[in-house]
């Protein structure tokens, strides 16, 4: 397995040699006869060195080699093409070198120069070769990691094992024109939520006042502030707040636009209420616990809530919401954000807080 970079595959094809000056006319009359092979050019310059493949049995020629179908009526020659390691995708390489009973990881997340892949128990046995192939096949990646153990229930990060590359988990991630410094070992980040963040931010207007009590390193905070919003934000994780402050400077955001706290979200929300700070939009993204914190918003009836939460697929989601507060679902919206696992969805509940009918005794 250590020799995976030497992997090659031979293709025996048919072709025809065409003068460069005649290529345009050839294409005009014979395009339907040309062979189409994924990621191979149909017209090969024999004087050029291709990293992905080589033509083995034709000497350097002034003519172009056109790959054609074997049953075509054209004058054909045998063509032997060697596909090099660079030609293949990571999935194709892993399928060749891993046992047939081991599934290939179908997806991964990139955060700056870090690639995060989740492995099942069968894949974990081959973690190092999987890591090396992923590292080698992703040009801008410096570190490949996998999650070990469970997610920390307080700060939402997890134990990490470096599979390949440098053992540095500090990175800079680009999103929608902003740069985020992330200490990936100690803070939560999910690149897969970028589209959802984009949808959320489209609902904010200049001079809106935003509250984000679970802000992390600031993917919503920074972008909202750049839109001209005032943001009150908080995170219990002190490392996340340190990263947020660095990101404020990195993105040249006016510090008066962001007021950041490092405390329990309950105390943060009660503090804002005590100060009678008006809020236009509350953004709750702590999916395991978000619904638990809605009860602290009973003084904000006219404010708008965007609340992200998990619910198991075998549970009626409307009944699940009603177990926390008696929301008028005719005046709120409920959407599925993503499929988190085989038995769990992530939802977003949106609506004015007065329509949630928060119980006074909560």
Strand order of the largest sheet: 14-13-12-15-16-18-17
Question: Span between N and C termini?
Answer: 59 Å
Main beta sheet: 7 strands, mixed
Task: Tell me the total number of β-strands.
Answer: 18
Strand percentage lies at: 25-35%
Tell me, briefly, the overall form: elongated
Task: Give the uncertain stretches in residue-range form.
Answer: none
The CATH topology annotation of the largest domain reads as Rossmann fold
Q: Which architecture of the largest domain does the CATH hierarchy give at level 2?
A: 3-Layer(aba) Sandwich
Overall helicity = 10-25%
Tally of individual helices: 10
Compute the number of structural domains.
Answer: 3
Structural class: alpha/beta
Q: Estimate the mean pLDDT confidence.
A: 93
Question: Quick one: CATH superfamily of the largest domain?
Answer: Vaccinia Virus protein VP39
Radius of gyration: 28 Å
* The first-level CATH class name of the largest domain: Alpha Beta
Order of helices and strands: EHEEEEHEEHHEEEEHEHEHEHEHEHEE
Keywords: Cytoplasm, Methyltransferase, Mitochondrion, Nucleus, S-adenosyl-L-methionine, Transferase, tRNA processing
EC number: 2.1.1.228
GO molecular function: tRNA (guanine(37)-N1)-methyltransferase activity
Protein name: tRNA (guanine(37)-N1)-methyltransferase
């Amino acid at each position: 397995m250590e020799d995976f970079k030497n992997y090659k595959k031979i293709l025996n094809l048919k072709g025809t040699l065409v003068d460069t000056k005649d290529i345009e006319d050839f294409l005009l009359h014979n395009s339907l006869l040309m062979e189409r092979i994924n990621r191979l050019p149909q017209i090969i310059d024999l004087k050029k060195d291709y990293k992905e493949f080589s033509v083995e049995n034709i000497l350097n020629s002034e003519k172009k080699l056109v790959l054609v179908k074997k049953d075509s009526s054209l004058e054909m020659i045998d063509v032997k093409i060697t596909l090099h390691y660079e030609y293949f995708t990571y999935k194709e390489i892993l399928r060749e070198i891993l046992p047939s009973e081991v599934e290939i990881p179908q997806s991964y997340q990139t955060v700056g120069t870090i690639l995060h892949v989740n492995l099942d128990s069968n894949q974990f046995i081959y973690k190092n070769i999987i890591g090396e192939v992923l590292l080698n096949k992703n040009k801008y990646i410096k570190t490949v990691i996998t999650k070990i153990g469970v997610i920390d229930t307080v700060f939402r990060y997890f134990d990490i094992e470096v599979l390949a590359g440098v053992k540095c988990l500090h990175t800079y991630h680009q999103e929608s024109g902003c740069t985020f410094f992330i200490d990936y070992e100690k803070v939560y980040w999910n690149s897969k939520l970028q589209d959802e963040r984009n949808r959320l931010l489209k609902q904010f207007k200049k001079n809106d006042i935003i509250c984000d009590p679970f802000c992390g390193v600031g993917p919503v905070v920074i972008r909202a502030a750049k839109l001209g919003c005032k943001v009150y934000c908080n995170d219990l994780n002190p490392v996340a707040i340190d990263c947020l402050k660095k990101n404020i400077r990195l993105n040249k955001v006016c510090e008066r636009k962001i007021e950041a706290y490092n405390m329990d979200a309950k105390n943060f929300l009660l503090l804002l209420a005590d100060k009678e700070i008006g809020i236009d939009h509350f953004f709750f993204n702590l999916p395991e616990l978000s619904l638990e914190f809605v009860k602290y918003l009973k003084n904000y009836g006219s404010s708008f809530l965007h609340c992200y939460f998990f619910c198991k697929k075998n549970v009626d989601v409307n009944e699940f919401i009603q177990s926390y507060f008696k929301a008028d679902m005719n005046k709120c919206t409920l959407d599925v954000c993503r499929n988190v696992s085989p038995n769990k969805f992530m939802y977003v509940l949106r609506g004015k807080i007065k329509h949630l009918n928060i119980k006074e005794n909560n």
